[in-house]
Amino acid sequence: MLLNSILVMLTSEKQSVACLARYLEARNWNVAKSRKMLEESLKWRAAYRPEDIRWPEVSVEAETGKMYRAGFRDREGRTVLIMAPAKQNTSSHEGQIRFLVYTLENAVLSLPEGQEKMVWLIDFTGWTMANAVPIKTARETTSILQNHYPERLAVAFLFNPPKVFEAFWKIVKYFLDPKSIEKVKFVYLKDEESMKIMHKYIDPKVLPVEFGGKSNAVYNHEEYSELMTKDDIKMASIWTTEAKSDHVNHGISETLAPDVTSQHSLIAARAS
């Protein structure tokens, strides 16, 4: 009974309920496909161990402010991630992927109670094809986002993308599912109607001036590093608590559905 096997995880905690809902939604409520997707995520987390990535390991990737958690939230209180691909500062595939995963984990665990999704604001100011990430990195990025963080994206704003980006976008779209593509909004500073779309999600009062808002906030690497260092301590505490809880409940879950549950099931429920 596939449905019963998956539903047994609902007994753990509410994060598991939300987790299962995301995986089911990502596979159009097909239980067999959702189960397979979840199992693959559990295997990935067990091997990659995203909860063990710490700021000192990835901080070099953030020096230019190419990706960071914004100091403001959208109108619904959701985490906002700001990305500036023109500020790419490394060529390390593995380093960029680990930085992405670290940032996603931090963003998810920073979501307020009751919120499951985040907002992306991707600034293409100054971007050229020379800044485009290799296809290998783009492919693994989309794979991680879609397969291991399903239904975590509320909306993605592509801010001032140049015409040359259209060619690159056609390549990237090949790796995206239709649902993800629908969440992408092209926004142009000089296009009032497109800006109104973004303002529906983000109040101009908290939006930085560079994005047509009224806030003077800018990325400061030293200050952000202090924040992430503090977050590392909080996250380590959360994972320790979840791991202990998982250990206590593992015996029960294992008896009911040994082919579905995993030692990292609760951790995955909270983060993925």
TrEMBL record:
PROSITE patterns: CRAL_TRIO. SMART domains: CRAL_TRIO_N, SEC14. It comes from the Eukaryota. Residues 57-219 form the CRAL-TRIO domain. This is CRAL-TRIO domain-containing protein. The lineage of its organism: Eukaryota, Viridiplantae, Streptophyta, Embryophyta, Tracheophyta.
